[in-house]
Amino acid sequence: MTDTTGLLALPNELLEWKASLRRFVDNELIPHEASGSDNLPPEALEKVKVKARELGIWAADVPTRFGGAGLGALEYAIATEELGRSIYWLDVMELGAVMSPLFRGTEEQIERYVLPSVEGTRAGAFALTEPTGGSDPARAIQTTAVRDGDNWVLNGSKCFISRGHVADHFVVMAATDKEKGAHGGITVFVVDRDTPGFEVVRQIRTMGTMAPSALTFDDVIVPDTQRVGDVGEGFILAQQTLGPQRIGIGARAIGVCTRLIELAIEQGRTREVWGKLLESQGMFQAKLADCAIELEACRWMVYRAAAEMDREADTRTIESAVKVYASELMSRVADKVMQVWGGWGYSKDLPIERLYRDHRMWQIVEGPNDVHRMVVARRLISEGMATLEESKPRAAVGIYASA
């Protein structure tokens, strides 16, 4: 018979690394949460950055040829899972998420943008979303790039751009042929922050601690040397960025829900209600069990998706399934655990309310869940259950073409 043990457990070396990451989070991140600060104190952050390099998670999603850790999808998911247990997320984990189209760039672009970003001397942002909406990004892109000799002239606006307030450059999706849309009408450009006509207008206040930026382009002239990839290739490059991020949302959900369940267990063991510890009462036990069961389902859905991505399979359907299930699971578990803690769960004395607020956004970003449900349904209708059960090579299905 075929040996299937690899499908049921992580290899020992990954388990050991996972344990070291958990110790790192427990010792270097979680203790600072009591300060009530939205961000790690600067002195703590510098110490953490050194540790991140030692653990191999600095620039975790950047290929080794550019100086990154070059983690595979499963390794990255495990690292994201463990870091997700703290309210303090380390942006150095996902440097590739904001510049992956540049991995296909020219030698000059790599020297100017990629290598300094990995070294930590530059910061970038990925500019896709516009005020017209993000549910159908290819058609929603109204920012235009019109060729003018050896230059391009960009006009339009972007919104909800993560890290926009600190970015030195922006990887921008613009329409170069609105008639073609996703099928060859979107092109990528890299725009420096100090380019005339470009402005970071403001940070957008949100329900959580994230404050993304709004951008405007007013006759912004960029040379053709700032174009990334071929003309019309932008939507494919965008999908190559967004696909792994959806699995990353699932991995983050594992960490968030693990931390929340840990807090619920702590409360169950110490709080008395009606003369009995909470842990002995059926209503609490039901909540705890439901959270744990759903967490375990999410874990193996994410691990499977990541393993399939590592072997270059078509993961589009499972990416969408993971994104929907995981993002909604975070809210369900946070709500249950907040109820377990009562008023203290609602207070800022504990991380529960922040985890609830910060992670509600994942049902919206990286493609709203309504759209991902539609994607899963359409593929089920066109391909049947094979879309979930069979793993086709990406190349065989033209992976990352328009959905």
Describe this structure in words.
This protein has 403 residues and is of the alpha+beta class. Helix content is 45%, strand content 14%. The chain contains twelve helices and ten strands. Strands 1-4-5-8 form a four-stranded mixed sheet. A four-stranded antiparallel sheet has the order 2-3-7-6, with no helix packed on it. Strand 9 (272-273) and strand 10 form a beta hairpin. Helix 1 packs antiparallel against helix 2 (42-55) and helix 3 (73-83) runs antiparallel to helix 7 (282-310). It is globular and about 80 Å long. The two termini are 38 Å apart. 41% of the residues are buried. Mean pLDDT is 92; it is low at 399-403.
Helix-strand layout with pairing:
Blueprint: H1 12-29, H2 42-55, H3 73-83, H4 107-119, E1 124-127, H5 137-140, E2 144-148, E3 151-161, E4 169-175, E5 186-192, E6 198-203, E7 213-223, E8 227-228, H6 234-270, E9 272-273, E10 276-277, H7 282-310, H8 316-341, H9 343-346, H10 352-359, H11 369-383, H12 386-389
Helix pairs in contact: 1-2, 1-3, 3-6, 3-7, 6-7, 6-8, 7-8, 8-10, 8-11
What is the overall number of helices? 12
Overall radius of gyration = 22 Å
Q: What order do the strands of the largest sheet run in, or round the barrel if closed?
A: 1-4-5-8
What is the residue-mean pLDDT, rounded to a whole number?
92
Task: Kindly name the structural category.
Answer: alpha+beta
- Helicity range of the residues? 40-55%
End-to-end Cα distance, whole Å, is 38 Å
- What share of the residues does DSSP label as strand, in percent? 5-15%
Principal-axes shape call: globular
